[in-house]
Amino acid sequence: MQITESLREQLRTAVDRSGGAGEFARKCGINAANISRYLSGKIGSISDANWEKLAPHLKLQPPQGASETIRNTPELREFIKDGMLKFSITTPAELNRAAGYDSVSTITRLLAGSINWFPDVLSMIFTALDLDFEKAPISAAERELLLPADLFKEGGQLVRPIPVVDWANAASSLAELGASDSSLVRRWDPEMTETVPVPIGGRKDTLAFRVCGVSMEPRIFDDDIILVEPVLSIDDVPNNKIVVAKFIDSELYPETVVCKRFHRQNGHLLLTSDNPDGKIIPFSAQDLQWLGIVVRRISEL
User: Fold this and answer.
1) What is the dihedral of CA 124, 23, 30, 163, to 10 degrees?
2) Strands, E assignment, 148-278
3) Helix, strand, coil percentages in the chain from 3-state DSSP, rounded to 5
4) 54 contact partners, CB below 8 Å, separation of at least 6
5) Residue among 277, 273, 271, 269 nearest 245 (CA)
6) pLDDT in tens, 135-181
7) Of 270, 243, 269, nearest to 257 (Cα)?
């Protein structure tokens, strides 16, 4: 596949949305050095094998000017920069921190007008700068793409909404997440989707699940919402942490997704229940398709 300037821009957009070339390379299963070469122009074409891995991810990214993005006009940038001045924010890094985003490079390119705005990012920035959504110099159709302003504030604290996944849908959601980054960029209807507000500044890839079952009582109760941060390696999980794990083999592990406490004992790996009546599950790293650490429990929402 020949790398045109349009394709390179699509690739830059996909990398930005993933939080960097290394993370995007991991999702695609491609060497990060190749991604850097594609972006820099040192390589003029992409092999068929790598293109098969890249294409599904690039197709998820709308091209510049597409209906799912908001035009990055000089008037819009001035509107945002005026808001930055009110808070003495002068650099992309400061704006990145204020909005709770996780890519300074993306904010830098947005402020320079190099790429169009993703609606969720623009909504976060408007909220962080206390800008009136209705006064923004964008079209009525573009304004419809913005997320509601009140989704990003709770009790005066800047927050962002995370869709809550019911436990019955956890396996399919995590399987999709492991297959591509589609679940991270798909738009969801804020009026119809249950969400939980999470303070700005946390990890962008944090997931929320509504627990079903009593195996982790009294620490986690049935119907609690838990926030989970994915880990790339089982070595990144400290001993005795509560985790959410998805197993590969549904015949060997009928409960494909479980919330348990992680243990290393005498060279063996175990997932245990806090409830004495719950199960103890021996497993190996090869049995897992996905693993995340529970970082917060939310009750009585």
Assistant:
1) -50
2) 153-154, 157-166, 195-199, 207-210, 225-230, 242-247, 257-265, 268-272
3) 40, 20, 40
4) 11, 28, 30, 46
5) 271
6) 999 998 888 888 776 666 665 556 677 889 999 888 888 877 655 44
7) 243
